[in-house]
C-alpha cells in the first residue's frame, strides 16, 4: 500500500504551514554552519502496515538535483518521494526479487538496486513505468554495497562472494573484476578518480586508482592500527558505511558500535573517533545480516545503507541513534585521545537507523520504520 504523509509532533515555532509544505527546502543559499543546530523533524511518512509485521527501511538515496528521495524497504518495495512538495510520489513493487540498496543513476527516472531473493543480480529499472532495462548478473552471493560514480554512468558493487565488480549501465557485462577478502563496502572520492573498498574482515580500507584498478591498491588504510586505542569492538566487524567527504579531505568508516572512525583521506590516519551520545541504532553490520523468508522481520538482523553521512559541505557528520540525531563538527578541536563528542544533538524520539543528506538543499532524511524529513527551523 502506498505511503501516506502526515504531520508529526514538532515544535510549535515551525508553524503549521511549514509542516504542511516544507518550503524551506528551496533555501540553498544559507551557510549550513549557521543553521545546523536548528534542524527539526518536519514531515513523517508512515507506511500502513500491521503492527505485528512492521516494514523497515533498508536504504535512503537522493537524486542528483535533490528533488526526489528514494527508499528500499523490507516489504520488497521501493518508495519515491517528492522533496519540494513533501509528498509520496510512487511505490514500485519487487516481490519476485526483493529490493535493497536502491540508488539513483544520473537520470532521476532510472535506478539500480540489489536483490534480496531469487538470485544476486543487480537490476536496472525505469521508474516511470516500473520496467526493467537490464540485469547485471555475475555476483554469486548477496550484494553488500552499490556506489554510483559521481560523474559518469558507471557504478561499483561489492558482494559476499568476495568480488568487487565495476559496471557501466549501458552493458550487462561487468567492465572490471577484483577478488578481495570480504570487500563489503565501496565509495568514490568526489573527483571520481579514486575508489575505496572497505574490508571489515581485514580491518582495512583499500584505495584504487580508477584508471589502473587492475594494479595493487596505491594505499591501504589500517583501521585496526588507527582505531585500536579508541574502540576495540568494531575494528574487524560491525562496519555500516564508507564515504568520502565532498571536499575530499576525510573518509568516514561508520560502525554499529560506540562511534564512527573519521580518517584523513590522504594519509589514513585517525582524525577523530566520533563517539555516540546514546544507544546506537539496531541494524546489523554490512555482510552480517540474516533474514529468513517468511519469518518475522528482526530489525537487528537487517542491514542498511548506513546510519551516518557527511553534509554536502564536508564539515559535519550526521549520525542516527536509538533516538535523536547526532551532529559532529569535523573542525572541532580533538585532544590526544582522538575522541570527539557530538557538537549538537537534534531531538527526536524515533530511531535513526538510516540517514542521508540532500546533495543540493539544506535538508536531510532519517528512517527506521518510517521516513522523516528534517528542515531547519526558520524561527530558531
Automatic annotation (TrEMBL):
Locations listed in the record: Nucleus
Keyword Repeat (UniProt): yes
Domain of life (superkingdom): Eukaryota
UniProt repeat feature WD, residue ranges: 136-171
Positions of region (Disordered): 1-26, 284-303
Gene3D superfamilies, per database record: YVTN repeat-like/Quinoprotein amine dehydrogenase
One of the Pfam families matching this protein, by short name: WD40
Chief location of this protein within or outside the cell: nucleus
Keyword annotations of the record: Nucleus, Repeat, WD repeat
Family per record: Belongs to the WD repeat SWD2 family.
Name of the protein in its database record: COMPASS component SWD2
